[in-house]
Amino acid sequence: MNKICSGDEETRKVYASKAPIGIFDSGVGGLTVARSIVDLLPNESIVYIGDTANSPYGDKPLSQVQIFARAVADELARRDSKIIVIACNTASAAFLADARKRYPVPVVEVILPAVRRAVATTRNKRVGVIGTAGTVASGQYARRFREVDPSVDVFSQACPQFVPFVERGKTTGRQILGLAEMYLEPLKEAGVDTLVLGCTHYPLLAGVIQLVMGDDVTLVSSADETAKVVYRTLSERGALAEHDGRHASAACKSFESTGDPQKFANLATRFLGPDITSVAQIPRLLR
Amino acid sequence: MNKICSGDEETRKVYASKAPIGIFDSGVGGLTVARSIVDLLPNESIVYIGDTANSPYGDKPLSQVQIFARAVADELARRDSKIIVIACNTASAAFLADARKRYPVPVVEVILPAVRRAVATTRNKRVGVIGTAGTVASGQYARRFREVDPSVDVFSQACPQFVPFVERGKTTGRQILGLAEMYLEPLKEAGVDTLVLGCTHYPLLAGVIQLVMGDDVTLVSSADETAKVVYRTLSERGALAEHDGRHASAACKSFESTGDPQKFANLATRFLGPDITSVAQIPRLLR
């Protein structure tokens, strides 16, 4: 298999601290991961590619997802990414092993960071995982749990209808509540004390999921955990961008899609955080 | 003590589902809480007030913080907030009991949600708490842990230098790493397996904090936990905004400060998430 950007000179170049962090997903979900990375590393340049022309990955055969994911990651490698983040559970399941061989830069994905956190937080060794049909069918979570802590019992549940609700901004109301109750009932019956949100869209449903599961169940977001692994990986390699004294947001954050850019931009706003519709100074409330 | 907006008619009015969620902090830190709330409840109107004219609260006597916090919360009540979120650990410590008596709407703060999550995740019953000098000196975290689970040993550490680093966007490099090592060493020596980020700025330092504490320690963010409590509280009261079919961000998100609005707006961008500097469509990578 040919490495992209292999060779000593190129390797040094892509490790250069000013090189961007390359992130991809089938669509907008990975933006929750991108945002967590920007939170922790505001001075880094970011290139994000949403492969919306081929989205969603979640209901496609893994062999096909592997081909799509490789094409996008190759593009990130061509842009001299110093690290490649597979910000998509389905693509992680399909493409990680291949990617680690293919690129000279570190490849971080979203499954193992979440599994490690869940192993660290569960007390009764019963952990739930929710994700797309593709992620659950891949068995990747169950496999990783066996590697990290074979004593953990893993209960998986596909939640195929969650993503469209998130993308429509419908995170409240009877429909989503009923859907969450239906999907999560087997996990409640199994008595899990920790639940991995195994799809990058799901952190935006944490309100209804926590409501249904009850307060005692700890939700694990792969977005936050993955961002911390990116921080550690770049830090250990001395590959973090220097703080150059400018305003943090001066570092370039580029978001690209293979499909309709306007639709992508609209959804991206929802995933990256609220626009500030107004900022005003109000009078001192006390004198 | 006079209630603001008390009385049956007013109470109904402020519970109306279209009323805003009122959120305040001494400055920008509470925006991490606001963002988590917007994530889970994109259709809600938000009024956020940063009391930057009196910021920071963290190093002032609690009696003075109580007076400042009351003035800001009164303003949120006057705006018909259907719930008031004290998105500031120091103000929570100083003002919660007073606020619960003073307003007819629910008051949510950031300490108890984080304490409950930490109690649910710790396995060795040794929990660390980091915060401002004011928050740590108040003893509020230790008190809440005693109420929720007296068998938990709590180890607190003030980290007064963290906030300026976050606000300058300096989340990497030798200085912040050295500072984190110095502050966190006693908590590592105490063998905590869970660490509460007891200041709304600290989620943006989760990278360096996780690096220093090691992967086995679970970080608890009060921002995420508080947002889920807001979701549950409004849901239980039937006070959630209806999804009206418009784009989610159509709901008004107003951010106001009592001090310099431009400085506030610059920092707000950092806390609310990245601006999209460019959105582009790239060619399909595979045909």
UniProtKB/TrEMBL annotation, chains A, B:
One BP annotation, GO: regulation of cell shape
Pathway named in the protein's UniProt entry: Cell wall biogenesis; peptidoglycan biosynthesis
EC number: 5.1.1.3
Top-level enzyme category: isomerase
GO MF annotation list: glutamate racemase activity
Binding site for substrate: D25, S26, Y57, G58, N89, T90, T200, H201
Swiss-Prot/TrEMBL keywords: Cell shape, Cell wall biogenesis/degradation, Isomerase, Peptidoglycan synthesis
Keyword Isomerase assigned: yes
Assigned protein family: Belongs to the aspartate/glutamate racemases family.
Highest taxon, organism lineage: Bacteria
Described function: Provides the (R)-glutamate required for cell wall biosynthesis.
HAMAP family according to UniProt: Glu_racemase
Active site: C88, C199
The keyword Protein biosynthesis is annotated on this UniProt entry: no
The organism of origin for this protein: Corynebacterium heidelbergense
Catalytic activity: L-glutamate = D-glutamate
SUPFAM superfamilies on file: Aspartate/glutamate racemase
Name of this protein: Glutamate racemase
Annotated InterPro entries: Asp/Glu/hydantoin_racemase, Asp/Glu_race, Asp/Glu_racemase_AS_1, Asp/Glu_racemase_AS_2, Glu_race
